[in-house]
Amino acid sequence: MGAGAGAMGQCGITSSKTVLVFLNLIFWAAAGILCYVGAYVFITYDDYDHFFEDVYTLIPAVVIIAVGTLLFIIGLIGCCATIRESRCGLATFVIILLLVFITEVVVVVLGYIYRAKVEDEVDHSIQKVYDAYSGTNPDAATRAIDYVQRQLRCCGIHNYSDWENTKWFKETKNNSVPLSCCKASSTNCTGSLTHPMDLYSEGCEALVVKKLQEIMMYVIWAALAFAAIQLLGMLCACIVLCRRSRDPAYELLITGGTYA
């Protein structure tokens, strides 16, 4: 009975070590994915940065890139500690994982906070951006609006009629909106308000908000997914540490010998 229990214990610990090694490999992959997600958020937000003024909105992206970098180091420490079966290394591994786990929880909370603030930020800034549109000069506001209207297939703040209240529309006096409002399928579109069927009918404000909130959700889901993996990693590391402390006949993973 005792021998059977011992065999089951050894099987359990070997399984925990194997899972732990596998998880460390996942951590390396996770590091790359998190850095990619963070970089994607930065690049995408750069295209929409005229529509929000709160730079703190990017804090979750900064943190997730830092976490991704740290996860690569964690994976290295975890692999070495598991294969060498270093008690100190495994303890360090668990502590760092716990700190990163807490950081990812903070990322999720911040993500939800800033996701809720996006709508107010865009609503506060978008009118200023449209008022700054010049059309003829390749300034930042003009590029931003033309890019957003083409990419999101929208026109104006709520619809194309919003352009009638802009300084650019009143100065040009040609009763037309920017060509970026033209539907891609309308080859002869001139932006004239006399041919509204050639123009995108949906406003840009709601679509910009939706796009920015989707990006923030990528950060939140990435943080949640890898937080769950880290919990499993901490559990396996704790099992290995506890078994090593209590079982003098602890089986080494790479040598097949015993720990004295």
What is the fold's blueprint, element by element?
Layout: H1 2-48, H2 59-84, H3 87-131, H4 140-152, H5 167-172, H6 204-246
Helix pairs in contact: 1-2, 1-6, 2-3, 2-6, 3-6
Question: How would you characterize the overall build of this protein?
Answer:
The chain has 260 residues and is mainly alpha-helical. Helices cover 69% and strands 0% of the residues. The two termini are 23 Å apart.
Largest β-sheet summary: none
Binned, the helix content reads 55-70%
Distance between the termini: 23 Å
Oligomeric state as shown:
single chain
Membrane topology: Multi-pass membrane protein
GO cellular component, one term: plasma membrane
Subcellular location: Membrane
Family: Belongs to the tetraspanin (TM4SF) family.
Summarize the structure.
The protein is mainly alpha-helical and 260 residues long. 69% of the residues lie in helices and 0% in strands. The protein contains six helices and no strands.
Keywords:
260 residues, mainly alpha, 6 helices, 69% helix
